[in-house]
Write a structure and sequence with these properties.
By secondary structure, the chain is mostly helical. The chain has one helix and no strands.
Length: about 55
């Protein structure tokens, strides 16, 4: 295995690993936080509209 092939392989592994951890972070923390915040905001607006109507 030549040094250029080995360095290309290492660069590929580094990029793949960074992408994996980024996707893991996004799917476990960012997306649920965004969805929960959005649902809470919708609930708050509906509650305010109901209170204003009554």
């Amino acid at each position: 295995m030549d040094i250029s092939v080995f360095s290309g392989y290492l660069v590929f592994l580094a990029i793949f690993t960074m992408g994996f951890w980024l996707m893991l972070f996004l799917l476990t923390f960012v997306v649920p936080y965004w969805l929960f915040g959005n649902l809470m905001e919708i609930w708050k607006l509906k509650r305010a509209a109901k209170k204003e109507k009554a």
